[in-house]
Amino acid sequence: MDVLVMKLILAPLIIGSASFAGRKWGSAVSGWLIGLPLTSGPVIFFLSFNHDNAFLIFSILGTLSGGFSLVAFCLTYAWLATRFRWPIAVIGSMLAFGAVILLMQNMVIPLWPLFFLIILTIFLGMRCMPKHTEVRFEEAKPGRWDIPTRILIGTGFILLLTEIAPLIGPRLTGLLSTIPLYTAILTAFAHRLQGSMGAINVLRGLLFGMFAFAGFFFTLCILIEYVGVGLAFIVGIVITLLIQGSTLHTLQQKTK
Questions:
Q1: How many CA atoms lie within 13 A of 22 on its CB side?
Q2: For a 10 Å CB count at each end of the chain, is N or C smaller?
């Protein structure tokens, strides 16, 4: 099957399925769900059709490094949301994300220390979130164009990034694959409807979901050179689902 056709079929399917699931179970679960590598994972997968393992490994290391930027985005948005409306929070958090991306572009960390630093950063991010809100599952429903818009934006981003990857290099490709497209949409929507509480719920859920993000790319980076792309992705997905299951249980405990 042509690679472009695969992108046009698989990307909307993955994004759409996750979006419907998040709509059903609420804002915190929506955030937890988008912690999955829904754009960065497909980006690496499609890069494997046209690039060697060395390119993929550098891209994966860049993607893992993008975890620092995601935590910066979450903390910046959460604290801005306690004082400002969603447009200012979106702009401020995206600027923070971009600043960390620029920093990490010139800072290469080996896999093992990088993985443990990402895990530590996620824990620190969770502790530094505003304390005055509680995670909840009740949620106002988004409009009819919410999911189609997400599918269109996400698929377009995957197509664009995989096409320009040879021009911008593997590390920047990986870093940019973590741009919080869905997070910004979901968080701004929750912020507009529910105030700061709704936005912070989404972001707290995302931080819980990021453990699976880290586990997925750590597994890929270790296995891809030894067992091939296909098997590495299968093992990575299994580990991701196991981690997501455990973090969902913890997230649910916090609602009791």
A1: 32
A2: C
